[in-house]
Amino acid sequence: MKKKMAIVLSAILACSMGMTAMAAPSPSIQQETVQNVTVNTSVTVTGTPQVSSISSEASAVLAGTTFRNAAGQAVDASSVRVVVAPSDLASMQESAGEIAAAMTTDASTIYNFTGLSSLALTDNTDTLNVLDQVYVGLQDDNGDTVSHNGSVSTTFLLRDILGGETMEEGETIQALYQRADGSWVVLPVVIRNGVVAIALPAFSAPVKVVFLLAKGTPMEDVQVTVRSPQT
């Protein structure tokens, strides 16, 4: 399992090298008609947060990434923990509505940080299909919030994200996180051997990450030549 995680994280970090701190709304996100909105009710939306070292086999840090506590003091990476907390069904439903509104109106903005020149956010039936939602944050050894400036990656099991859903041919997983201003960012995702890895750009507080079932080809590898999308 450690080797499998390391391979996936190596690929996702290569993709995150092409991410920028800021981007304009990206036309590379396909203009889609949302025929329906569904929220997966079979996933586990209760339980205690999962805490692991950012240096563990389930996480990785892009070279040059720095960490600071609330006082602005530098925190060594060896003391940083990744905290993944489950969401609840009501929050997932709220996120589904917000993403649908961002796709079809000017209510909010969606940014494409994946490096892909074109991507979809609906599944093969043109449904906005919300599979799962979690909150990802960083803490130090004392449990205090840590911010980062760079890119960190963490992994999930594909079966946990899918719950009772099935990923059909021509479908993949897309991951979005919501910024403090309410806008959404589509993140780099790599799927290999049942493991899903995502790369998160800089954040100063726990962020909401939403997983969608979407049209596309699961990406198992990325090249270090990947760059941020044209905007």
From TrEMBL:
* Name of the molecule in the record: Uncharacterized protein
Q: Which keywords has UniProt assigned to this entry?
A: Signal
- Species annotation: Candidatus Eisenbergiella merdipullorum
Q: Quick one: signal sequence residues?
A: 1-23
